Every structure is written in C-alpha cells, then in structure tokens.
Amino acid sequence: MKIRVGYELIYDCPQPTPMILSLNVHFSRASDLIIPDHLITEPSVPVTAYRDRFGNWCTRIVAPKGQIRLTADALVNDTGETDPVVPGAKQIPVQELPDETLEFLLGSRYCETDRLSDIAWGLFDKSPTGWGRVQAICDYVNRNISFGYQHARATKTAWEVFHEQTGVCRDYAHLAIAFCRCMNIPARYCTGYLGDIGMPPPYETMDFAGWFEAYLDGKWYTFDPRNNTPRIGRVLIARGCDAADVAISNTFGPNTLKSFKVWTDQVFDG
C-alpha cells in the first residue's frame, strides 16, 4: 500500500522568529519513503537539522518577518496491516525492565503520575496484568472522555482530562499514559499521521494524530485510546515522554498560525 502524507503550515511573524520543527517522518520509517518529506519553505530560508534525545528528526529555521509557508509532500510504503494485537503480551516487573524504559515510568509535564496513582490503582488493580491491563486502561479512557476540538488547549494535563472528561487525541493518550505508568507499565507518547484508511465514512478533517506505545514482553506496542480499535496506515513522526517532547513547532517569539492543513491518503496505482 502507498500513502501520501504531508502538511502545509502558514505562520505570520511580526519579527524574525527562530523555530524548532518536529515534522519529519520518523527515522524508523525512512526505508519506506518513496518520495521523501523534504521541508520546503516559502520564502526560502536556511534549514538545519539534528536528532533530539529520543532520536526524533528536528529542524531549525529562522522565520523572517511576515508570512512563511512550510510544506512537505511525501509518499510512503506501508504494509497495509492493522496495528498488532497481542493479548498474551506480559507485563515485566520493574526490577527487570531495561534501563532505557525507566524514563517512561516517571511523571512528566502532561502526565502527573503522583496525582493519578491512587485513582489508577483503584480503577485497574483487579484487571489482568500485561496487555489486558493496558487495554482496560484504553477502554476506560475511550468510554469516559468525550472528544471535541473545542475542548483542546495547550496546557491541558492528564489530571485535568480525568476531571473534565473531555479532550482531543493527545489528551486521551496523556491520560492513558499516566495510568499505565501508575500501574508500573512504561508508556511513551507518539505523534504522526493517521488517516481514515479502512474506516467507513463520514471522514473527519485531517490533523496530526496522537497515540501511545506501552512496553510489554520486551517490545513496544501501539495503543490508541481515542479510536480504541486497530487501524491501518499509521505513520510515526516522533516519540517522547508526552506532547511537550514532540510539538510540531516550538517558536521563540510572537507569531500567528494562519493556516494548518494535513493530508494522509491512500494512493491507488493506475
């Protein structure tokens, strides 16, 4: 299967503004790129790149005064298979977890494990360990949080999502991640492209999607409490402790996002 992915972002800056962008397809999918997702800026500005501590590709630019258009348009090979489901995947005791997973047991900017620990144990202590417990967490979040873009705000945390019972995909992921960590299951935030491939209409306006991965039986597995069903065509951009680590843009000066478009569509040969 081939998937066309891309974006167009238009910013208006009242002065030259440094930016860090996390928009490139994750290096783990590099071999799947038929047409690379090279960043194009209008007007043209110097572009440099680096890898952050999670291995994500990041781009540095200085946006000039006025409007700047950022765009990329890529073609990706995909297996066409749904997210794996492995009900027998077991939970690993904390003392046996690899060192590199321990960071994803701790509280973070949007995932307050200290505030949610007693709640999590009250809700999920009787659920089966391993895959069954992560799925129970996803079922709870999916069932109890109402989706709506009007509920989105940049400062919203898992604790606030739990009490307000509203949010967008990143809020679903943050609450599920916090619950997993409270239950001693490493969990990390993911952002990327996720279209409606294989799903019945009506189709929503495209956006970047948020989901998470839980560490079970020595592997990281995808979970998506917003949709709560295995999906086709997930294309990873970045991973981190939570959304603070994978923001599509960090801007160091006043600016206005004038336009925001994302696409992810299956491409049929012929």
TrEMBL record:
Protein name: Transglutaminase
Domain Transglutaminase-like: 161-227
Pfam families, per database record: Transglut_core
Domain of life, per lineage: Bacteria
Organism: Parazoarcus communis
InterPro entries: Papain-like_cys_pep_sf, Transglutaminase-like
Native organism taxonomy: Bacteria, Pseudomonadati, Pseudomonadota, Betaproteobacteria, Rhodocyclales
